[in-house]
Amino acid sequence: MLLAAGFGTRLFPLTLDRPKPALPVLGRPLITYGAAYLARFGCRELVVNLHYKGEAIVAALGDGAAFGCRIAYSREREAILGTGGALDQAKSLLNPAGTFIVMNGKLITAIDLQAALATHRSARALATLILKPNVRRERFSVVETDGAGMIRGFGPAPAGEAASGEPPPLFFTGIQFLEPEIFDYIPPGVFSHTTTDVYPSALADGRRVMAHIAAADEEWGEFSTLERYLDLSCRLAGDEQAVIQGDGCRIAPSAELRRVILWNRVTIGAKVRLQETIVGDGVSIPDGTNLSRAAVVRADLLEAEALAPRRAAGQGEQVGENFIVRF
Questions:
Q1: 325 with 12: CB under 8 angstroms?
Q2: Among 23, 65, 228, 258, which has the highest number of CB atoms less than 10 A from its own CB?
Q3: Under DSSP, is residue 208 helix (H, G, I), strand (E, B) or coil?
């Protein structure tokens, strides 16, 4: 199962007209990387949950034939359900008799799933979460484990500098193997999350929830904020100073661009200076504009999106025909 129902609030305003998993990464919708990754490891039946602007996800993935698999969609129509609620709603579409995998749709990774599955099966676990060392102590919740590799709980993100000699904390990558018995611990028909609602109940019942720790050098990236979206896109492009362009872009010869992502049909005027900036579809940047660490979309998207006025309050400013959020 690929999880794709979220609102992408931390990627506002890029998610005004599309969900987070449909954001372009090097010319492809983000979620297509996840579908191709799972298919490469032998998944031939995928379930994708939808809520916010789900039609963009369907347009990106279709019926799965392009990835060598079949895709079924679970539509969360009334309200978003969380990870646990999403699994509960999709229960009839998932494998009723064997192990299945759940992965967040905002990831690009090369973690070895076969090794993780071997950990899961050898431990006879109810669930196995793939973890990684949080070497840079980013704002990921800490996963607590014991010496035998069993998960004991979940804590807040690491605070401050690490003590001398202290090993890096572990964080959950958003990829997990599950057995059908997990549904015994998912509250039916309500919003719930696996890490806060489901796994604590299973652990309290004595069930084995295991950790598979991926190597620090196994590629993994989460596109959850404007800063991560920019950084990871440049890293994947192989150039930390990259200028990544979509289709139909026009850039004046006198413009200076550094660490910039241009979506489709972007026009950059004369003597424009952009640094660490993301520019959405159809945006025109006027002559002489100077922007750094900003995301720019057309201001008319605010009028088309019902949630936009509330989300825009205090988060950005309209400048001419553009809406700008700084990060």
A1: yes
A2: 23
A3: coil
> Is 109 in contact with 37 (CB distance < 8 Å)?
yes
* 234 plus 118 within the same structural domain: no
pLDDT higher than 80, residue 144: yes
Distance in Å from the first CA to the final CA of the chain = 32
The range of the structural domain enclosing residue 313 comes to: 226-326
CA distance linking residue 214 with residue 107, whole number of Å: 15
The HSE-up count of residue 181 (CA atoms within 13 Å, CB side) is 12
The total of structural domains in the chain comes to: 2
User: Residue 325 and residue 241: Cα distance in Å, rounded?
Assistant: 21
What is the three-class DSSP state of 232?
helix
- Give the per-residue pLDDT at 293: 98
d(CA 167, CA 241): 32
The one-letter code for the residue type at 43 is C
State the pTM of this model.
0.94
Q: How far apart are CA 271 and CA 259, in angstroms?
A: 17
Amino acid at 98: G
CATH number at residue 120: 3.90.550.10
Which of 126-130, 175-179, 289-293, 315-319 has the lowest average pLDDT? 315-319
DSSP state of 238: T
pLDDT in tens, 203-237: 999 999 999 999 888 999 999 999 999 999 999 99
